[in-house]
Write a structure and sequence with these properties.
By secondary structure, the protein is of the alpha+beta class. It is built from 24 helices and eleven strands. Strands 8-11-10-9 form a four-stranded antiparallel sheet. A hairpin with a 7-residue loop joins strand 4 and strand 5.
Amino acid sequence: MNDRIPLESIEPTTYQITTVHSSLKSIKYLDITQLELKEKHDIKVSVSSRYEDNIWDFHVEFPYSSTTEVSLSFRIELSDGTLLTDDGNKKFLEQAKDFYYTMLTDPVDTRPKFSTYVKTIKRGFKWLFSYMKRNGIKKLSDIEQYDVDEFLEQVASTRIKGKEQEPINNRTLATRLEGVDWIYEQNPKMKDGLEIDIFSEYGGRSRWSRAAAEVVFSRKESRTVEMPDEVARELIQCAISDLRISDCLQEIYDIDIQYERKMIGYKEWVSIREVIYQRHGYLEGRIERQKRATLESQLFAACYTIIALLTGMRLHEVLNIQFGSDKNWCAETLEMNGQLFKLSFVLSKTTKLEPKPTEYKWQTVPIVKSALEALEKVSKRNYDNGSPWLFSGHKSSARMGKGAIGHSLKNFAVKHDIRFNGEVWDLASHQFRKKFARIMVRQGLGLRALQDQLKHYDIEMTKLYGDPNLYFELQAEKFLLSEELMTEFIGSQIPIIGGGAVEIQEIRKEFLGLAKKDRGKFLKSLPSQGLVEQTDDGLCFYRAKKALCGGDKTNCRPADCNNSFMVATGKKKTLLYRRKENNRLIEFFRDQPFKIMHLKERNKEIDKLLFQITLIESSNEENI
């Protein structure tokens, strides 16, 4: 360290570093503008790393983040094939380290998350240093305006390898130079920093990318491919079926433990494993060396599919789920209008709403718990070795990487031959989140509720998932479904009951009195009067003026409401069971008068419907 000048420690302002370890006396942040390279080498940048290291490790400061998110690696490849850490690039390496050191001690005004500016070393810095090396520029402070213009032109005109025919879009350009705008802002805190604002002429990196791009995508345009309904349906069916893999892997784990503890010999171990694979149906000829790893990958993909498609969680939120039902699952009972609803939630952490990983709940359905339990069986091996993650990686304490789950998903689609338009579907992690949002919109979930479930900070982002075009499309689907349902009921003599049964009979008479050429037009006109939708108690030909529920389907009165009707055939047994169950609940909730009142009102509705069925049965007997 420098003995000539007494240097005072600088208090770090990187607000994400808030653990107890960051305040240890072993870490003293200094003003590096007063130090030479040799004097910087021993500076501690984190509990685990020094300035001279080519990988700065912050896993102590961020214990709940994955290794890739908290490791700042300077081993990046420049355009000439050399590494930034090579001897010939020492000057560039020093400038890169100085920049990131200032981001620890006094970051830019926007205060980006640590995991965000870790990525920029492979983006903006890579492009800038590659340009500087090609043109013999040694220091950031030597860059002139001419260099800026030429640099931006080269970045904008460089084609994507393997996609040379595709036009360059603004999102690609903005990503290429991510972090470059911060270098200029950090200039006063560095020695020989960048003195020219590269994007000053355009007003920012985003505006430059739009001006320089061949194709411009607006913020509201999604680049995520829409997952077709049939693909989603087949995926979830295959995923649920694959949960049984966990039973096989649990047995394999148990026998592996016996072998590792030398309780059985090698030949016996191999023989027993073969029997287990065969019993579970996973023995395809000889056992491949990586059989267990292949099945683990398949199970991880199946469980991710179930969790992501039925919660809408982001990739990092799913991967952040921890081992143990007390840490990843909870159930709550909600009372509403005298009824009890059991709600299920997945527990995990997100980094999207706050800088530090913060625990939140995602509402879901019970089948997701089966996926979590299946994961616990296969992840117990790593949990016993100290890994807290449900999606555990190959290393004992590591979390599964984002690239690994992406690879597993693509293999999953190939394994189950999930196709669309004759091609195997190119499955990607973010497609599930978009599909979940679409399903929720179809079910009538509002934007505010969808925003809460998707954990969006800005509702404008939620609107992209619930795009108005999507609402128009779904409305068209509802009209088509209504027309199909009306065709089925109006064009037949199926016995029906409910408060709207009489009106449906009148519509039937009018329909039968029309000429065949006019019947189609008549049926198409019905959805404009009111859409037919499925409810718990049958079908609802909803017209607001005639609705007794006030628009709340949980208050449906099927026996009295003119909007309600249902098929009478086979309904009697269901209604009798419901009445019996309600009587049981009345006895159970004997000390809760409001619930008893609600259940008795439901029984009155059931009795009216049963009476209507009796009238139909009597009429049929008279006609015999």
